[in-house]
Specification:
The chain is mainly alpha-helical. Helix content is about 75%, strand content about 0%. Helix 1 packs across helix 2 and helix 2 runs antiparallel to helix 3.
Length: about 80
Amino acid sequence: PDYYREQIAGMYGRLESLLKTAVPQRSPEELARAARALWGGVQGLCVLALSDKLDIDRIESLPEVADSLVGDYVTGLRSAP
């Protein structure tokens, strides 16, 4: 439905805005791609954790793994040409 598409677009817009602050040298297209990659990655982690398939009990908590994904991805965006 349209309302759902609007909510998703708003979420991506907020994420792109945050990424623009973190990596202002990136183009709008790169920020849009990064927002979708990060959202997909975090969503995947959550789905795996909820289905008990992530196997993080012995390693770290889900927030720590998600922080690692986002932090490392943004670091890569900052350092890549």
